[in-house]
Specification:
This protein is an all-beta fold. It is 2% helix and 45% strand. The protein is globular.
Length: 322
């Protein structure tokens, strides 16, 4: 058995399809290297959410508002999630864009290959020319299993260091009764709470019980119905692996290797929309090297990753869909 790699069209864009008997992946280089589909070929489940209110379109070269381009799928966030300034670094005096600099730029195809073991690979890169930084992602789909390797490289050719936060940003098409799987007692940090009387931002707690201001605890394991009406941003700290289980049939597992392992979770259960439309029902399932949204805050607290001048860093995300 072998996987296949072919060029296809995705709406108005050139795209690449990596596929085997278990998993299908579709990537659009021109849209920030966006993965627009990650689907199980056995059950038919599409794991990635697509925004029903926003159509795919090419961002303007000066686009900075991610919510206006929140089309769904899987983007890469780098070097910051929230906009901030990092004077005295490779990022200069400019404000980094909302959700980073990668989603709004076209990516280039570096390599496409069929490998000796029957797997297929697609390498894309994004040149952040004005900053002297290059970001590369190589996808490798196994020959006959639902296993996708995402190998990342970040290189700094600037004369100043480049502090950074990276996060993969797949938005998941959740279903009621899906269940999040984390070891009980995993340390968590609350970022944002909308529509729920949660403890203050920054509160740390143990999975799966979110403390409420009433003194009660709220169990986070099971995905509620779409009309639940709340949204939460959470961080799972020092956590290398996390899963989403569906009806004991489909399971999506993400595992980080080669960087400080954390997960950000954006649990949007009908609690927020940034595009003047009804609130979304989705979840950001986001492995990250730094449990912060703001690069400025992470740098202040000595928590940011740093690419020194001339340095290249590598890390890997393993995606298993069964």
């Amino acid at each position: 058995m072998s996987a296949s790699l072919q060029r296809i069209r995705c709406e108005s864009w050139d795209a690449y399809e990596l596929a085997n008997d278990t998993l299908r992946v579709v990537v659009v280089p021109a849209l920030g290297g966006k993965i627009v589909s990650l689907s199980s070929r056995r059950s038919g489940r599409e794991w990635l959410w697509r925004n029903p209110h926003l159509s795919l379109r090419t961002p303007a070269t000066d686009a900075s508002d991610y919510s206006a381009h929140d089309f769904g799928g899987w983007d890469e966030v780098f070097p910051s999630v929230s906009p901030c300034e990092q004077a005295g670094t490779a990022w200069g005096d400019s404000t980094t864009s909302d959700h980073g600099e990668l989603w709004r730029r076209p990516w280039s195809v570096v390599d496409e290959s069929v490998n000796e073991d029957g797997s297929v690979s697609l390498s894309l890169s994004c040149e952040l020319t004005e900053f002297g930084v290059t970001f590369t992602r190589r996808l490798t789909l196994a020959a006959d299993a639902g296993r996708l390797l995402c190998d990342y490289t970040a290189e700094n050719r600037a004369s100043l260091p480049a502090p950074f936060i990276w996060a993969a940003h797949p938005l998941i098409a959740i279903r009621p009764s899906d269940a999040w799987s984390l070891p009980t007692g995993t340390r968590m940090k609350l970022g944002v709470a909308l529509g729920i009387d949660a403890a203050p931002p920054g509160t740390e707690f143990e999975w799966p019980l979110l403390p409420l201001r009433t003194g009660e605890n709220f169990d986070l394991r099971v995905v509620p119905d779409a009309d639940a009406g709340y949204a939460l941003k959470l961080f799972a700290l020092k956590t290398p692996t996390m899963s989403l289980q569906s009806d004991n049939v489909d399971r999506l597992t993400l595992s980080l290797e080669g960087v400080a392992p954390n997960f950000a979770l954006w649990l949007n259960y009908g609690g927020w929309s940034g595009a003047d439309c009804p609130p979304y029902y989705n979840a950001g399932f986001e492995p990250t090297n730094v449990a912060y949204d703001s690069l400025a805050d992470a740098t202040r607290d000595s928590q940011a990753a740093v690419l020194t001048t001339g340095e290249t860093q590598h890390w890997r995300l393993v995606v298993e869909a069964t």
